[in-house]
Amino acid sequence: MAGSGGSEVRTPIFSGENYEFWRIKMVTIFKSHGLWKLVEKGVTISDSKEKMAEGSATEEDDEKSVVEHMRDAKALGIIQNAVSDQIFPRIANADTAKMAWDLLYGEYHGGD
């Protein structure tokens, strides 16, 4: 059915070549999921950890933190699934989407 909104975007698989093309496609995918800012800037560490340590964190703080970390895990999963098995070990220890993204950028970006 043309125009139906249920189609899933396939992520391109990065195998070590044509990084810039892969990066452009991935940015578009992240933007379509509302995740690009999170990948680009990273998970924001709010005052909630300090508040938790002080015992003054609210349930809302906890919920926001959980949601943001879930979104980051989704973005990290997208990146992990968008690299070949040969590239994956380079990002296997990345804890956040930004960390994985920056590792790939640092290794494969050709420079400005």
UniProtKB/TrEMBL annotation:
Q: Which Pfam families match?
A: Retrotran_gag_2
Please identify the protein, giving its name as recorded.
Answer: DUF4219 domain-containing protein
